[in-house]
Specification:
Pfam families: Nas2_N (PF18265), PDZ_6 (PF17820). The chain is flat, with a radius of gyration of 21 Å. It contains 4 helices and 7 strands; from the N terminus they run ββααβαββαββ. It is an alpha+beta fold. Strands 3, 4, 5, 6 and 7 form a 5-stranded antiparallel β-sheet that branches. Helix 2 crosses helix 4.
Length: 196
């Protein structure tokens, strides 16, 4: 997937990263399709029983379809984790390359000290974001591996969050003119999403 530059480090192009993102989208589409199959089978899901109360195979569902869909979902979820890891590594690599070659704009010392790329407009009480200390009005400077130089859209943030479920992320925000460092762990909670 990657070539090497003169220093012997691997290199990557934006097109290669976009290709990985397309693969990720395709995997997500396939997972959704298999979940739809499970929904059509009396909404049996991933854990619904395949036998009746007497221990016989259920006659109201297509057992082969259910087993096949469950198996494929598990395989695709593993593929999804792997591609998310590849995307994150590729983004790190791409950012490092641009910093080395100066393609990303002026060198760090020539840039304003902190450049934010997003502003927090809502934090749900009791959510992972709230527990990390994130506040409404905070301007995000760094979110894990994402910063103003490699930020394209919120999909990149969503990818990092999804790949980092249960793992702490480093977060830097500007708050009242001061740089504040926070630790945020995306995880499932009572509300929607992994952040809130």
């Amino acid at each position: 997937m990657t070539d090497e530059n003169r220093q012997g480090r691997p290199t990557i192009t934006v097109e290669e990263v976009q290709k990985l993102v397309k693969q990720k989208d395709l995997i997500e589409e396939q997972i959704r399709a298999y979940f739809n199959v499970l929904e059509d089978q009396k909404d049996v899901g991933m854990n619904g029983p395949l036998v009746d109360l007497e221990g016989y195979p259920r006659g109201d569902i297509d057992l082969y379809q259910v087993r096949n869909a469950r198996h494929n979902i598990v395989c695709l979820q593993n593929d999804h984790k792997q591609i998310m890891q590849q995307i994150e590594e590729a983004l790190h690599l791409l950012h490092a390359q641009k910093r080395e070659t100066g393609e990303a704009g002026p060198r760090v010392q020539d840039q304003p000290p902190c450049q934010s790329f997003a502003k927090v407009d809502d934090v749900t009480p009791g959510s992972p974001a709230s527990l990390s200390g994130l506040r409404v009005g905070d301007e995000i400077v760094e979110f894990g591996s994402v910063n103003s130089q490699n930020f394209k859209n919120l999909q990149i943030i969503a990818s990092v969050v999804q790949h980092s479920e249960g793992k702490p992320l480093s977060l830097t925000v500007m708050r009242d003119g001061n740089k504040v460092h926070l630790g945020l762990t995306p995880q499932r909670w009572a509300g929607r999403g992994l952040l809130g």
